[in-house]
Amino acid sequence: MAKRAKRVKPITLRNNAPPAAPPPPAAATDASDSKPRGRRKASTQKLIASYHTLNKKLHAVLKAGDSTAAGSIKTQMEAMGGLHAYQRASLRGGNEKKGLGACGSWLVQQLRAELAELRDSEAEKLVVVAENGEEEVEEVEEEAKTGSPATQQKLKLKLLDVGALDGGTYSKQASWIDVTSIDLNPQCQTVRKQDFFERPRPTGAHEKFNVLCLSLVVNFVGDPKLRGDMLIHARRFLLPRGLLFLVLPLPCVKNSRYMSHAHLLAILKSIGYELVKHHFARKLALYLLRRVEQFKLQDWTKTQMNPGIERNNFCIVVKRS
Ligand SMILES: C[S@@+](CC[C@H](N)C(=O)[O-])C[C@H]1O[C@@H](n2cnc3c(N)ncnc32)[C@H](O)[C@@H]1O
Questions:
Q1: Region Disordered: start and end of each range (predicted)?
Q2: CATH number of the domain at 99-291, please?
Q3: What is the ipTM of this complex?
Q4: Chain centroid to CA 148: how far?
């Protein structure tokens, strides 16, 4: 008898997943749920692609000061169900391609290694010791070397998940990752409603993180200059040697006229990140990057490097201000 394929649990159905968001407004109701699977997948992808296109156009017309065009684009976006419908489509798309589940486990492996390294090194001091005062830090670090389970529970990586959507991505790792989740339009009560660009700069190490996650968020931002700003802003929230986990759709680095893997790494290097590891999954490009202190911020413009009409326009612009 033929073996049955192992089912991968979708990321949104994991154990300890936070409570579901309140029902969407009528305009955002997902009519495609009743469609056959193939058609549903196609309409999900179409909705995501159309939303991205309109979002990019909106940024462009707003930049040009054309409020009439902006109004008309916003109306089109609302007619599609707005950000809420886009987010629901993203959650469905993630389940269908199993990409997020895969990228979750790839990251978890890296972070486990990171935590183990942190315990053995000077950087151990960067690990957050929940609910302990200063004197206890030394004690806990000493214990960490002996590997006592009680201590291991106290040592957690602090992670900021930007664009967390339903906030469930790291729920299985709650014993060793302390997650703060934000999104423009949260799909769950544990995710704070906040525009990352408006998150105030940290005033000290206690407001910084060991890891910051930008998973499918940079490509969501319509304006290439704001993408660069987002990467610069992210670095401010990282502790020294902290990690940025950046996920982009694979075509952003593999099939863009204005971007390539090497170009992306060069931009990131100039912003103050060095590559730890990367992985190209079927549909996603995953990057784990470390904050470094020695770097030279430079401007990056939109420059065509891979001509071709079949290619996309994804790019990142950096402008020192
Ligand atoms: C495609 S979803 C990605 C969700 C999730 N991170 C994942 O990997 O599946 C992009 C999310 O980023 C959020 N987002 C975009 N710009 C943001 C910003 N400036 N601040 C906070 N969230 C933002 C959107 O609201 C949306 O929920």
A1: 1-45
A2: 3.40.50.150
A3: 0.99
A4: 33
